[in-house]
């Protein structure tokens, strides 16, 4: 079950972590071909997670962030890592469902601790929705490819890009903190019935704090009352209007990013049947949160992109979107002494 080329490295890890050469039992948890390999192993009667990273990436940054999170009680205990062999052994979390009402408090409390840690290393490429605020050739190429794909009708593509320009114009200063950066996947937040654990630190790096907050909120926060609970737990006090506005804008940026990315991935260059109905955003995200939806196939990816696009289209037409733009722009004015003009939408 262990890849032959990693057998000696795994034996070394077992010896370093436990003083043994073999495990007593093993179960393959790998999600799909091409994903990192993950195994539940039993050593001396206890369960551990053995992970073999097969995807390219900076293992030094990955393991440093994972260790920092573990030291803070946010991630499972780390027993062994090897950057050379791309292997880690950690405690195994026997997960149980985390009710949404509980998640509204537990997750922002964990993020508050995470974002207060010493700075994480930077990364060469932003894999979150904040990528859309990193001006340069990579972003230009992303937009050019999306335009050329004609996935959306031309008028809707122009509408999306106009709304994007509005957010990018006012969200000119990032609020950097250590970020997990892969929490749009509920599988990376495990509840053992007592504590919440954040796992899979492959994408961790220094990022805007609202990126983590927004992607989780887009799964579990459904109204302003829940938003207040969520943000108050994170900030330790009721959020002010500027915090609410930044949070709201990054939630919309996340809708943009996941709509564009997953429509592109799901369509695979083929036309999308827009007449096919899609579930309501809240219903889809509820099923996604409870693991009732997988993004493994192209159809699921397309639906995921479409529900984000549908929700974004509704949100940017509401008064709150324009109010949030004005609040953040006004704060920029007071800090810089010069007002940042707001691009007009069609």
How would you sum up this structure in a few lines?
The protein is α+β, with helices and mostly antiparallel strands. It is 48% helix and 12% strand. It has helices at 7-18, 59-71, 100-114, 137-149, 154-170, 209-220, 224-235, 241-267, 281-289, 298-315, 319-336, and strands at residues 25-28, 37-43, 46-52, 78-82, 87-91, 176-179, 189-191, 196-198, 205-208.
Q: Can you describe this structure?
A:
By secondary structure, the chain is of the alpha+beta class. The chain is built from eleven helices and nine strands. The termini are far apart. The C terminus is likely disordered.
Tell me the helix content: 40-55%
Number of strands: 9
Overall residue-averaged pLDDT value: 92
Major pleated sheet: 5 strands, antiparallel
What class, by secondary structure content?
alpha+beta
What is the name of the CATH architecture of the largest domain?
Answer: Alpha-Beta Complex
Task: Give the amount of beta strand, in percent.
Answer: 5-15%
**Measured distance between first and last alpha carbons:** 57 Å
H-E order: HEEEHEEHHHEEEEHHHHHH
Q: What Rg is obtained from the alpha carbons, in whole angstroms?
A: 21 Å
Name the overall outline: globular
Question: Keywords for this structure?
Answer:
five-stranded antiparallel sheet, two-stranded antiparallel sheet, about 50% helix, alpha+beta, 11 helices, Phosphorylase Kinase, domain 1, Aminoglycoside 3'-phosphotransferase, Chain: A, domain 2, about 350 residues, disordered C terminus
């Amino acid at each position: 079950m262990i890849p032959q080329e990693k057998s000696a490295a795994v034996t070394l890890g077992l010896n370093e972590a436990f003083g043994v050469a073999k495990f007593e039992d093993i179960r393959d948890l790998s999600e799909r071909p091409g994903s990192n390999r993950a195994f539940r192993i039993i050593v001396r009667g206890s369960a551990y997670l053995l992970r073999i990273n097969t995807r390219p990436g900076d293992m030094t940054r990955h393991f440093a962030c994972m260790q920092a999170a573990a030291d803070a009680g946010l991630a499972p205990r780390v027993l062994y890592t090897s950057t050379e062999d791309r292997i880690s052994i950690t405690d195994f979390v026997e997960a149980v469902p985390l009710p949404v009402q509980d998640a509204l408090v537990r997750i922002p409390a964990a993020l508050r601790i995470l974002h207060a840690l010493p700075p994480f290393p930077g990364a060469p490429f932003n894999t979150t929705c904040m990528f859309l605020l990193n001006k340069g050739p990579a972003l230009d190429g992303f937009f050019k490819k999306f335009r050329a794909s004609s996935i959306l009708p031309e008028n809707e593509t122009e509408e999306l890009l106009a709304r994007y320009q509005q957010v990018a114009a006012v969200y000119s200063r990032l609020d950097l903190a250590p970020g997990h950066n892969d929490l749009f996947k509920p599988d990376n937040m495990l509840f053992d019935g007592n504590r919440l654990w954040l796992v899979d630190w492959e994408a961790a790096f220094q990022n805007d704090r609202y990126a983590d907050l927004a992607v989780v909120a887009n799964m579990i926060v459904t109204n302003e009352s829940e938003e207040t609970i969520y943000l108050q737990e994170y900030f330790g006090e009721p959020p002010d209007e500027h915090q609410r506005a930044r949070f709201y804008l990054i939630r919309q940026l996340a809708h943009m990013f996941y709509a564009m990315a997953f429509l592109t991935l799901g369509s695979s260059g083929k036309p999308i049947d827009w007449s096919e109905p899609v579930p309501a955003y809240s219903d889809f995200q509820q099923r996604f949160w409870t693991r009732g939806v997988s993004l493994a196939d192209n159809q699921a990816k397309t639906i995921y992109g479409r529900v984000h696009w549908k929700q974004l289209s509704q949100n940017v037409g509401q008064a709150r979107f324009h109010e949030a733009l004005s609040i953040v722009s006004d704060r920029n004015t007071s800090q810089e002494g010069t007002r940042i003009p707001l691009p007009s939408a069609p």
